[in-house]
Amino acid sequence: MARLANYFVVVGYDLDNRVEGEGQGRILQRFPEKDWEDSPFPQGVELFCQPSGWQLVHERQPASFFVAVLTDINSERHYCACFTFWESLDNPQLKKNEAGEADEADEDLAVVQPAQVFAPKSLVLVSRLDYTEVFRNCLSLIYTVHVDGLSAQLETVIGNLLTCIIPIAGGSQIDETPVCSLDIVPQALACDWLLACLQPSPEEREESLRTITLGAGDRQVIQTPINDSLPVSGCSVAQLFRQLGIVNVLYLFCAALTEHKILFLSSSYQRLTDACRGLLAIMFPLKYSFTYVPILPGKLLEVLSTPTPFIIGVNSFFRSETQELLDVIIADLDGGTVTIPECVHISLLPEPLLQQTQTALSMALDPELEVADHAFPPHSVQPSALKIQDKEIRAVFLWLFAQLFHGYRWCLHIIRIHPEPVIRFHKAAFLGQRALTEDDFLTKVLDGMAFAGFVSERGPPYRATDLFDDLVANQVERIRQEEACPHKVMNHIKELAEQLFKNENPYPAVAMHKIQRPSDNGQNTSQIQTTFPALDEVGVQLFIDHAAARLKNAPPVVKAEIKSMVPSGPPLGDIVDRNSNVMANSARRLEVVRNCITYIFENKMLEAKKLMPAVLRALKGRTARVCLTQELNQHVLQNRAVLDDQQFDYIVRMMNCTLQDCSHMDEHGIAAALLPLITAFCRKLGAGITQFAYSCVQEHMVWTNMQFWEAMFYSDVQNHIKALYLETDGGDQQNNSVIVSSAPPQDGSGSRREVSALELAAEQNRLWLTLSKELQMERVQKEESTVFSQAIHYANRMSYLLLPLDTSKNRLLRSSGLGDVESVSNSYVTNSIAGSMAESYDTESGFEDAESSDVANSVVRFINRFVDKVCNESGVTNEHLKALHIMIPDIVQMHIETLDAVHRESKRLPPIQKPKLLRPTLLPGEELVMDGMRVHLIPDGREESTGQMGGPPLLPAEGAIFLTTYRLIFKGTPSDPLVGEQIVTRSFPIASLTKEKRISVTLSMDQFVQEGLQLRSCTFQLIKIAFDEEVASDLAEGFRKHLHKLRYPQHVQGTFAFTVGQSAKLVLEPKAKDKNQSLKTLSKNLVKTAKRTINRQYVTRKKYSPPSVENRSSFQSELDEDEISVSEEVDQGALTLSSTIRSSDRQTMSNVVERACCRDYQRLGLGTLSNSLTRSKNEPFRISTVNRMYTVCRSYPGLLIIPQSIPDTAIQRICRCYRQNRFPVVCWRHSRTKAVLLRSAGLHAKGVVSFFKSPNAPTAVPSQADSTSLEQEKYLQAIISSMPSYSESSGRNTLSGFTSTHMNTSESSDKLRQPKIGDLMKQVLGNKDDVPGTFSRGALGQKAKVCSLSQSKVSGKARTPSRGKWGSIRGSGRLSAYNPDVGTRLAGKESPQPNGGPSDPLFLRQQKAYLYIIGDKAQLKGGKQDSFQQWEVIPIEVCDVRQVKNSFKKLVKACVPSSPTSDPNMSFLRLLEDSEWMALLHRVLQVSVLVVELLDSGSSVMVSLEDGWDVTTQVVSLVQLLSDPYYRTFDGFRLLVEKEWLSFGHRFSHRGAQTLGSQSSGFTPIFLQFLDCVHQIHLQFPMEFEFSQYYLKFLAYHYVSNRFRTFLLDSDYDRIELGVLYEEKADRRNPQVCKSVWDYIDRLNKKTPIFYNYMYSPEDEEVLRPYTFVSNMKVWEFYLEETLSEGPSYDWELKGRQERVAEETAEKPDTSAPKSQRHIVWPCYDSLNRVMPDAITKLLQDMQNLEVELGQTSDKWKDTWDKIKTTQRTETKLESKASFSSSLLMSSNLSHQRRSHGVCLQEGSVRSSINLSLECEASATSTPVTGRQSTSTLYSQFQNTESENRSFEGILYKKGALLKPWKPRWFVLDKTKHQLRYYDSRQDKECKGVIDLADVESITVGTPALGAPKNVEEKAFFDLKTNKRVYNFCAQDGLNAQLWMDSVQSCLSDA
C-alpha cells in the first residue's frame, strides 16, 4: 500500500525577492510541514513549477497542468504534478514594491503601471506514484472549489487527498477498506456529503471499494496495475512514434541503450514528460539508470554539459542554447526530427533483427501500408485505438528483447546462495554462443549500466516472475519459428499487447470519473478574483494525524508475493558461426585431430609429424579446438600427465595453435577448457624438476585479460558451491527430484537430467527461512570458505601463467599494468630453449634480483587487483582477504624459485631439429657482417609465391637472414613440406634499402606473435621477416643498427664499391681518421690548385667557401635541398685562369682529355684539342678549358664546348645568371642539319626578367645585370650564328626561304612516323581550350586563331610529313604574357578560309626561330621578348623532383604490395594509375620527341630546366639516343651515360640517398626514369638497339647497388677529389673486383650473349620517333619479376659459383630411382630465360658444347654470331624470292613498319614468335634520299668491324709483358677514332686492345729484345712510347716498319 500523495504545496510569485531582474517562486504553504520518514520533501519544487522562469504578465493565461519528475539522492523518482493558474496583483502592492526596490524594478511593470498585472500561482502534488490523470483531477477539483466557492472546505479536500492510500499493484483490490469511511473523518468536519457514504447501496458499495472521493461531491476510480514490474505507459509510446516516426525512435532507443545523451525539445511540458516516459517504457526489461529529467528548468540548463549520459526534456524556448552541444542527440517532438551530431556513432540493432523490428512496427502503426496496393483492399484496416496501439508497440519491443536476451540465464554464474544470492553474467560466453562477438550494439548493451541492473534484478533464481520471464523461458521456440513470417509475428505481438493492456487496465469497463470542472465565469472571469486563500494548517494536519493513527491500529495488510523458481528457457544451442563455412567443422578434420593425439600418446612420432600441418590447419575451426581439449582431457590421470620431450613439444604446439585463434575474451571457452590441462601436462627435466606446459603457452593475450580470469573463477566457484549442496542434500534427494521433474525435460528425453546451479539455488532460497539460525550460519561459513579456497587456487594459477620462464625478462605485464599488453616474442617453445637460446639472457647476478622482483611486483599487483575484485563481490570476510594479500607475494616468490630451476635445466636440453641454415654464396670481396640469424620469410602482397595462383606455396619459408657488406640475403626452404627441398633466396643490395619498418607477425606454425621487420628496396624487392624465437631481441636490434650503418655510411668512401675487399670489421667501426689516405692516382696538385684559386676568389666575398674533404658532410647538407641554388659568384677582378695553372698541372689535363666526352665531341666534329694556333678559325665551336679547375661550375666537366667567338672571360659572367652556374653548353650536333643541342640550368629568378627585358626600355645606368644580360644575348647569338642554315639564309629569314630539301624529299621515310611538330608542341604544352589571341608583327595586324592542343593520338599512317608548316605551340593564354610573338611564328599551320579557298600566303611567311629554349613555365613569368630576336622560349611544365619521389613510392607499393588486398581500389592497375609513373614517363618522352623534331627540322634547341641536372639530363640524353644511332650501340650508350649523366653532374649520391648526409632527401630515381624511357623506346624499336632489355635492367639494378664506383658521387669534381676518376682500369691486387660497371659489362659480354640483342639490324633512317602516349607504354618487367630460386640475376659471379656447388653435389653417386627429364617451371621461382632460353642462345650454347666435345677450341659467341650473320647476308642476296628461312631474322632490311608487328625476341622471353611478312631485299630497301648521306654509312663510320675508317693495317709482332713471348697480332691504325687497335687475326671482330694515340709521346726505331722472332732484320723493330709504358713492335721487314712509323707520326701531327 502507498500514499497517493505525499505532499501538497502552494507556490507563488515572490514579490520581495527578485534576483537580477528575474522573478522567483516561493513556497507559500506545504502540507504536511514535517517530512515523512520514508520520503523526504524534494528540494527545488518552485523551480520546476515554472520551468521557463517566474514572470508577471499583462493578460490572464489559461490554467495549465503538467507532471515534472524529480530524482532524489537515493535515485527515487518523485512525480510533481503542477497545476498553475494566474492571479491579479493590485497596483498599490506594485507601487509599494517599486518604492522598496526601485533599482531592481522590472521594465515590464514600469510600462504597464495603470493596468492589471497577473502573477502565476501553482498547486503542486508530490507523489511517488505516477497517476497523471488522477493528479489532474484532484488539483482541478481543489481549483474549482476555490474559484467557484463550492460548499466543501479546501482543508477537507486537501486533508482527504493527503490521507488517501491505494495499493501499489494487483489491480483495484476488492478487499480493501473504503478510503473515505467515517472512521477516519474527524467528527468536527462531518458534513452533509458524508451521509451518502454511511448507507450505500450494494452496487455502490462495490463501486466505492475501488473509488476515492475527496469530499467535494467527486468520485474517481484508480486502476492499479496487476504487476507493478511492468511499466505503465498510457498512450505515451504511441504518441512518441506519431511524433517522430519509426526510424527516429529506433535511433533514440539504440542511443539510450548504448548510453548516449538524448535531449527532447517541445513547446509543451506535458508532451516532454510523455515522450520521456514512452522511451523508458520501450526499454523494458532494462531500466534507465542515468540522469532522467523530463522537464529541465531554464535556470539549470548547464546540466546539459554533463559528461554522463542522460535523457532530458527542455522547452523549445531554449532551443538556441542547445545548438552548441556537440555530443547530444536532439529530438524535436514538434518538428518530428532527430538530429545526430557527426561525432556520435549510434550502434544499431544487429541486422536481421533490425529489419524484423521495423516491419513489425510499421504493421502495428500503419496496417494500411500492406494492402495499399491491393486492387480490392479490405474494408476495415484501421489502426487500433491509441491505447491499444501503444501496447502493440511495446509488445514489439518486448519480443525484440526476448530475441536479444534469450538464453541469458544459461550464462549466469551463481557464486553465493546464502545469505543473499550473488550472481554474475558471463558476457563472453553469451556472445560466443550467440555468434555475436563482433556485434557492436549487443556488446555495448551488455557492458552498460542498465544490463548490470537487469542481472542483479532478474538474476536471482527464486523470485516473482513476470511477462518477460515467461517470454524468454517458454516462447523462444515459437519466436524462432515465426520470425520469418510477419503475420505470425504480428499475431504473437497482439497477444502480448493484450496482456500488457490487461495489466494496465484490469477493469476496463469501470472508468467512471465524476469531477466538477470550474464554471465558465470562474474560468474566464475578468473581474478581480479572490486570491487563493491561506489554508488552515492545523485543520489539515489534524486530518493527517488521524489517518496515521488509524493506520497504526489497523492490522498489516500482507499481500503474499508469489515467488517461484525462474525457468531458464531452452539452452543456447551451438549456433554455427554464420560466416565460417561448414567445411571447417567437418568430421574428417576432427578425425585428423583425434588420430594425431592418439599417435602422440602412442609414441608414433613420425605419423604425428605427418599429420601435424593438417592438424594446425584444422585447429582454425572452433569445433576442432573443442575436440582437442576433450581428447587431451582423456589422457590426464589424477591431474597429471608426464610426457617425453617430443610428445611435450607436439602437445604444446597444438595448445599454442589452439590459443592463438582465441580472442582475448575467450568467448568459446577454449582457453578456459585448456587451463586445467596446461597445469597437468608436464615433462621431467632432471632430478625433482618438472616443466609444465603452462611455461610454454604464456604468449597469449587471454591470460592478461582480467575479465577472463573473473569468469573462470566464478564458473569454478559455482561448480564447487553446487557440489557443496549436492553433498549436504544427500538426504533431501526427493525434494530435488520433485523440482526437476516438475520442469519439463528440455533435451527431449524423459530421463532425469543434472540439476543446474540456478535450480539448486532456487530450492535453497525456498528452504532458507525454514532453517534454524545455527544451520543458516553454518551454510554461510561453508560458502565463504569455498570462495576463499578458490581464490588461493586462482592466485597460484595466475602466477603460473603470468610469470615468464626466464624471469629476468619482464614480459607480459610490462606495459602499464595491463590492458594493451605489448606482446614481445619470448615464446619458449619447449626444448628450443636449449643451447641456441644463448647465454646472453643470463644477466649479471647483481641485476637479476632487481629484474625479477620487477616481474614479481607487476604479477603480484595484477593478482591483488583480481583478488580484491572477486572477493568483494563474493563476500569474503576481511580477515580472509588480508590473509590472501599476505600469501600472494609468497606464492609468486616460490613460483619464481621453481621456475629458475626449470629454466636452468631446460637450457641443457638438446635443441629441436630445425632446418639447417644454408650459407649464401658471396661475391669476391663481399664479406659477412653478421652471421645468419634464423628467421621466417613471410609472404607479402605478391600472390605468385604463396600458391594462391596455383603451384605450391613457396612462402612462408624458414631460413636465415645474412647481412654482408654488399647485400641483405635471405636463404632458406619453404615451410610447406611438399616443396621443402627447394631453396628460396631473396636479396637486395643494402644501398637500395628505402624503408625499414618493424612489424609483428603471427606464424601459422608455432602460433606466436614474433617481432619482425619489413624491408623495402628500390630494386623492387620486399623482404618481410619474422625473427625466430631463438633470436634474442638485442640481436635483432643490433641487426637493425648494422643495417642502418651500412645503408647510410658517413661518407661515400664507406660504400661497398670503396670498401670491397677490406675487412668487414672496418666497415662497422669507421675510424675517424683523415679520409684522404685512400686516394689513389689522383694528381693532388690539380685539386689543391683549384682550391687555392677558389679560396682566393671567395675569401673576399665571404659568400661561401667550398669545403675540404673533412667537413664535406656538413657542407653536403647545405646543397641537399633542391630548392636552394647556391650562387657561386666570382669577383670581376679575379685572376684569369691561365695564369693560375702551373706547368706541373698541365700534365693532368691529358687525363681530362681522355674522358669519354672528348672522344664524342671529336666524333661529332664539335672541336679538337690541338693548340689554338693551328685550330681552324672557321670552326664554329671550340673545346674550352675555362672550367678545368672546376671554378666556373663545380658540377660541369673540365672541358666544355662553347661558341668559337665567346672568350673564356665572358663565360664567368654569363654563368652567374644560371642556377648552380650551369650555363648553356653544346652537348650534341645534328650531323645533317648541323643544329646543336645545348643544356643548361634554369635561369636565376633575377636573371629571367632582365633576360627578357625589352631592349627599348630606357635604363639610366647600365647595371651589372644589364651587362650580364647583354653577354647572354651575345652568347645565344653566337650559337645561332654557328648554324649553317643561319648563314645560308642571309637575310631571308622566312620560313619559306628556309624549307630545306630534306623536308621535301624525306616523305618516303618520314611519312609513317613523323607527327607534325605543331601537334607535338600542342601535346607538350598541355591541352587547354582554344584561346584566340592577337599578334601584331610590323604592319600586319593578323588575327591568328590559336590551335587547340589536343592529345589525340594520330595513327601511324595518317601522319603527314612535316613540310616546315608549324602548328602552334601556344598552350595557354598565359603564354602571351611573356612571349607575344611565339604564336605568330609557329602558327604557320594551314588555317583554311571559311570558303575553303587557299589560306592567306602572307600569314604563312612568318619567321622561324633558330633556337628554341625549352624552359620551365614557372620560371618564365613576367619577361618580355623582343619580336626580332631569333630565339624563342617553349615553356613547359616539368615534373618536380618531389613528384618523382612520391610517384616512385607509389609505384613500388603497387608492384610490390606489402600485404594482399581484395579492395578493388587497391588493385595493381588502380595503384599503378594512382602512382602517375607512366604519366611522368609520357611527359619526359613527349618533350624529348619534340626536341628531336625541332633539331631534325634545323632549329637548335637549348634545354634549360630546373637545376640542369635532373629533367634536363633525361631530355638531352633521350634526344641524343633517338637522333643518333651511335648511342644505341654498347659503346655509344656507355658514352652517353658517362657524358650526360656522370660528367655533367647528375647527383647520383644525393638522389640515391647514398650517405648519411643525403638520407633526409630520400630516394629519387631520376636515372631509373630515364632507363624506363629507353626501355619504352626499345619495345617500340626492337631492331634499333645493339643491347638487350636485360642490359637496361642490369644498369637499373646496379646504379643503386653501390657495387661499382661508376654511379657514386655527384660530379667529376667530387670524383677527382676522391681520386676515383682516373684510376687504373682494374685493381692489380684483386683482379676480380671491377670498379667500373662498364668494364664488368665488357667482360661479361665477351663470355655470354646476355646483353646482346639478336634482332639488332639498324635501319637507314636514323631518327626514332616513338609514340609517347600512356596507352603505348608497358610496365617494365624489371618492376615485377622475381626469381626466388637464385635471387636477382644481376651479379653473375654468384651464378657461376652456385652452378659449381651444384655440380660438386651432383658428383656424389645417386642411388635413388631414375630421375624424370621433366621440369616444372614456376614463374616466380625459376628464371624463365635460364630454363627456356631463346633459340639463338640455345644454338650458340649447343655449338660450343659440340666443339668442346670434339676437342676443338671454341670460338667466342660473338665471332660465331658475326660469321653466321655475314654468310646469311650473302645467301639472302643470292635468293631472288622471299624466303621464310631463319636467315631473315638477321637480314638488316626489315621494312619501316616493323614497329607495329609483334617482333618479340628480347631476352629469350617466351614470346619468340616472329610473324613478319618479309619481302626480299631488293624491294624492301628504301631508295636512298638524294642530297642526304645514307644513315648506314654514317653509322658504319663508328663501327670498328668495318674497314672504311682503317687508315693502315697489317701484322706486327708485339712483345708481351715480362716473361711473355712475342705474339703476331693484326694491328689497325684508326685516324677517326685516333687509336691503334689490335686483333688476334684479320677475321677477328673483337678488339683485343687499344693504344690511344692521345697518350703517345714518341715513336722511335727499336732494337731486337729477348725472345724476338728469328730471321728478321734489325730495322724491322720499333718502339712506341706512351705516358704509361713502352710498347715493342716488330714488322715483317724494315720497309714495313718505316711505313708503320710514318703512318702513326702523321696521325699524331694531324691531331
From TrEMBL:
Subcellular location as annotated: Cytoplasm
Predominant cellular place of this UniProt entry's protein: cytoplasm
Domain PH as annotated: residue spans: 1845-1949
Record bears the keyword Cytoplasm: yes
Keywords carried by this UniProt record: Cytoplasm, Guanine-nucleotide releasing factor
GO biological-process terms attached to the record: regulation of Rab protein signal transduction
One of the record's GO cellular component terms: cytoplasmic vesicle
Domain named Myotubularin phosphatase: residues: 1151-1680
SUPFAM superfamilies (alphabetical): (Phosphotyrosine protein) phosphatases II (SSF52799), PH domain-like (SSF50729)
Residue span(s) of domain UDENN: 6-465
Single GO term (MF): guanyl-nucleotide exchange factor activity
Location of region: Disordered: 1103-1124, 1352-1376
Any single Pfam family the record assigns to this protein: PH
Family as reported in the entry's similarity comment: Belongs to the protein-tyrosine phosphatase family. Non-receptor class myotubularin subfamily.
PANTHER family (alphabetical): C-MYC PROMOTER-BINDING PROTEIN, DENN DOMAIN-CONTAINING PROTEIN 4
Name the record gives this protein: Transcript variant X1
